[in-house]
Amino acid sequence: MPITIKDVAKKANVAPSTVSRVIANSTRISSKTKENVRAAMSELGYHPNFNARNLVNQSTNMLGVVIPSASQTAFHNPFFPEVLRGITAKAHEEKYGLYVSTGQTDREIFAEVKEMVQSKRVDGVVLLYSKTDDPLVPFLIQESFPFVVVGRPPEPLLTEVSYVNNDNVKAAKLVTEYLLLLGHQDIGFIGGQKEAFVTLDHKTGYAKALEQAGVPLTEDYLVYYEELIEGGQQAVIELMALEKPPTSLVVADDLMALGVLRMLAEMGISVPGEVSVISFNNVMVSELASPPLTTLDIHIYQLGYKATELLKERIVDPQSPATSAVVGHTLVKRQSCGSRR
Amino acid sequence: MPITIKDVAKKANVAPSTVSRVIANSTRISSKTKENVRAAMSELGYHPNFNARNLVNQSTNMLGVVIPSASQTAFHNPFFPEVLRGITAKAHEEKYGLYVSTGQTDREIFAEVKEMVQSKRVDGVVLLYSKTDDPLVPFLIQESFPFVVVGRPPEPLLTEVSYVNNDNVKAAKLVTEYLLLLGHQDIGFIGGQKEAFVTLDHKTGYAKALEQAGVPLTEDYLVYYEELIEGGQQAVIELMALEKPPTSLVVADDLMALGVLRMLAEMGISVPGEVSVISFNNVMVSELASPPLTTLDIHIYQLGYKATELLKERIVDPQSPATSAVVGHTLVKRQSCGSRR
DNA sequence: GTGAAAGCGCTAACAT
DNA sequence: ATGTTAGCGCTTTCAC
Question: Do residues B3 and B44 make contact, with C-beta atoms less than 8 angstroms apart?
Fold first, then answer.
């Protein structure tokens, strides 16, 4: 039989409400009573029951974190642990608990989110991805439930939802320009999942850079695979089999790039001697690749941290307009890119 | 104003208790009433409020997951995402939600666990580590709160707490013997955190193998560092500076081993030509090392999955005796070990 | 088979 | 500054 607020009240000779006020540290309680009550609390080993508190407060101090359905694979990509670190840090600062989704398929996840929203398991939701035609975003809007997405929502909703993102267009443009300046003309583009906004944006930035440099875009140079080692390997096969294979590669993700490097090595193609490789994310392993990967650091941790910050705002004031934040990027030059002159 | 059980009751012309029974799918409700009530529920878009339910049931259907305090760094080690995958999978099967700890220091974590236990935020706890003199285990025992540890508890508590572990002694013995059989005599031991039980066990297995082979143990060959790239690098410096440096290395963790490989490469020492390296865990990146790491797969996913299974048993029947499970290991031979003959 | 009513542990008017 | 009281939304005896 656990100790309740009533037990404390009795022990301290006050009303339950007084105890409640002491817990909330209300200013309208004399410091003497506070002392007494606190003494009684610790003497009895009292601890507030969160379920009771949640029920009356209609909130749980929990944040839901939704990891994409590819999570079996997703968790293999260091991106997720890293965003999680950022989310965790801010959540902890704000005294929020984290409820992580465990669904394995899109349908399961949708059901789970629905449940956590409608059953009020959490006060807000962080979506760790965004892709075209995702049902979650419309659902959350319709329920007018606080949420934030890491990445960006579809164009028409840009002003309606809070999100934090990199400027992926600019990012892709930058890396492409870097390759261009190194003298490369034949630049392959190894994109990630085709439905992901980040992929679309990368493509746009890549195309812009080429256009601006007056280099025609070769459709054959555009390939799309999952952000996994295997994806990178397959992409290389596809690209290197071309009549005129590219001399440099823009790769959507470090992990993919590792696959790329590996396949290239197997083919006896030297990096950066014959082919240059540049990728995105700057996940830890990119440093350990051989050669160490030149990559664009997108500040993943910040992404998570900022997202949680925005989410908190929305929870505290649900009426507040949707806001967004752009996290910068920085080029980390290592040894996978070489000059073509 | 959310829809409550009362609204449904009114709509269906029954009492709230009846609705409750329908939710619980009680057998003592006529199927006709069930139909009616369910119709009313979906028509109104009713969803049970978990906080209310939790309050009366005195449970939350949540599992707490405690990640070690080194989590800033820990999350960098793919071990954690991988156990999490296992936990997640089983939790989802059993319809449990996951509440992950967000504390950054040992003290914060302890406070957090205390809070989640005493405030009944979760029904049980998974401890993702175990080290000597950890206060969490005694605390949870004292509170007689259901929990399970991944790894092993201190000897005296072995029968009191549920845990799932590898046979780390045997594992370390195996890898050491492998090196021995390849003709190595001078085998360095790069352990992880000194307080961790896994480290102690590794050390024991290593020593056993040497003893059994009649090879004297050289104290200088034993070094301990954090399970991180940097740790591996420093360890190599320490070991290679010895008058008679080892010709092979048993490394506590793949990530460390990457650091080892790297530092060795910088020193111009070839692997496996001059020095052989073998490690534990078989985390994805070990395959991508150059040379690809020979490592002992400890089935991390299984560890998490099994742990959750045991935890569930304890929650369902808190009186049941503590149980434990041992997860096997398999040697994954790749290219970082060579013969010495 | 179904309803009435009490109560899980807490908070927040409202009263004093 | 403190006590009284009425719920929060649900489950569960106990009636009938």
Answer: yes
